[in-house]
Amino acid sequence: MKKVRFEKKKYTYLDSLKISIISSPVCTILYLILSLAVAILPTYQVIINARFIDNALGLIDGSATKRAVYISLAIVIGIIAYQWVVGPIKAYLANKIEMDMRVSLKGAYVEKCSKIEFKYIENTDSMDLMNRVADTMEHKFIDGFTNVVNLISLFMTIAGLLIVLITQIAWVALIIIAVAVPLLYLSFISGKATYEANKEITKYQRKYKYLTTVMTGRENVDERTVFGYNEKLNDKWFEQYEISRKMETRTRAKWFVKLKSGSMITAFLCTFIAAMLINPVATGIITIGMFFSLINATFDLVHTMSWSLTRLIEAVSTHIEYLKEITKFAAFEQYDNADAVPEGGIEFKSLEFRNVTFKYPGTETYILKDMNMKIEAGRHYAFVGANGAGKSTIAKLLTGLYQDYEGRILINGRDLREYTAAQLKAFYSVVYQDFARYSISIWDNIAIGCVGGADDEAISNAITALKLDSVIEGLEDGKDTLLGKLAQEGKDLSGGEWQRIALARCFVSEAPIRVLDEPTAALDPIAESNLYSEFAKLCEGRTTLFFSHRLGSVKLADYIYVIDNGHVEEQGTHSELMAAKQLYYTMYDSQRRWYQ
Ligand code: ADP
């Protein structure tokens, strides 16, 4: 079966239809048939109603038979019954299509998110756009689809009714068209405005919804109790909620005014037209049956045009604005083969930065300037520097997360940009400062470190190496106990235990380079130092890169790079750097008491 995918192109209404067909082909086609079949009924109804009334009147003067009245009555009732039945069936189908779309759109969204370049993830504007696009996505698409189908069906109905009117009394049709066209244009414009207003409202909604999670969620319960910040956050919540509420009230008020003025126009037009039809009926241009039927149809038509049609057009134009955002999201650049699985058995010899200069996309400050360094296989390296010196930026660059740098990054003498995503992934196993704590079992938390699937022995070794045996013994279901706060029975671990799990995940990976980007920043300096040296011992013979602003933890490294002012300020072994009595020495001296 074809899959829904977000591809770089301009998204139009046709895509909403396509997505619907791909997600739920049978229901979509049934929905289309039912909608279009019901569209011509009102036109037929005018003629049938007129015939029924004329036949009924004909009974009085004997010009019609009872049989003719019964037949036309049966047809009238048949049409009404059909319309009643079609409504709920269409609602059921729309519901089913929405459920099917949820599955396919969620898959497409997750796939796109997993491939897009890292710069979008770190940028608030693009993250905002992604959140907006993802919010009730299937609902927006099904709305877009049903609205446009209903719009087409409505146009068919209107066209049919106008044709009947034109054949009977042309000028009535002309008046309706003359009034309706500007009304429709206005609703199109107002649809755009509504979307913009809603966009603004969601910004504030997101803020207050986030604060609600902070104030009521399980995640922050400990800090909330200790700091007692609820009152302060409550004020903030109220502030954001009020802004969003006022905006929403304003948008609704506009809606209300539009609704009321629409009904007034309807009432006025209908009365006017009814009055104008009296003369043609008196002079016998139209029959009494046609008179009543036409008045009925005109009421329906004007009401439909001033209310249902304007509402639909507004909804359609809102969906067009949504599709513009989908187009922007789909155009986010992505890594080629980002979902490729790392290639096993990749060999690493060296990694080199040659005059690497870098600033984050959309910013003006250079974080790295002419940075040079070299890493050789099998050795332990440390990158040290103050907070904000650019250590994590180096980690992001060497793993290929940002590739718009100047200068060259060479892996095994070959440009980093020449490697496929799968190859780059295969080189590294990384533990970040804000490493993930997955609410799955401790065993699975470690196993996912190896994409190809770590064997049980490797996982058991990692557990022993990182001293997690005693942790597992203390858990009710041992290695299968669910961790974290998500599950009812979930067991939460200490910060240090989570760090060991993250390190074990890195340890089971077959990648030749292990990168630790301050995952132990939350530990005290001595504990961090111990954990780093423990891990270094475990990684004997492997290439490891430690990033830290605390020097005590890195002195065992084979080679140390001191980062300052966006480049390598000093380099050497711990004893060489201490002997040089420069920046490293000063930093070390000022941190000395941390380790006493
Ligand atoms: P370190 O790891 O040494 O503490 P970082 O590499 O995290 O330092 O940050 C270096 C500088 O880059 C900081 O000034 C930080 O504000 C900036 N920075 C980090 N990430 C981004 C980003 N995604 N966009 C813009 N600036 C960033």
TrEMBL record:
Major enzyme class: hydrolase
Encoding gene per record: msbA_4
Organism per entry: Acetatifactor muris
GO cellular component: plasma membrane
Domain of life: Bacteria
Positions of the ABC transporter domain: 351-590
Keywords associated with the record: ATP-binding, Hydrolase, Membrane, Nucleotide-binding, Transmembrane, Transmembrane helix
Protein name per UniProt: Lipid A export ATP-binding/permease protein MsbA
Parts of the chain that traverse the membrane: 21-48, 68-93, 141-163, 169-189, 255-278, 284-302
Domain (ABC transmembrane type-1) ranges: 29-317
Entry's Gene Ontology molecular function annotations: ABC-type transporter activity; ATP binding; ATP hydrolysis activity; ATPase-coupled lipid transmembrane transporter activity
Protein's cellular compartments: Cell membrane
E.C. no: 3.6.3.-
Alphabetical list of SMART domains matching this protein: AAA
Topology in the lipid bilayer: Multi-pass membrane protein
InterPro entries cross-referenced by the UniProt entry: AAA+_ATPase, ABC1_TM_dom, ABC1_TM_sf, ABC_transporter-like_ATP-bd, ABC_transporter-like_CS, P-loop_NTPase, Type_1_exporter
Statement: the UniProt record of this protein carries the keyword Cytoplasm: no
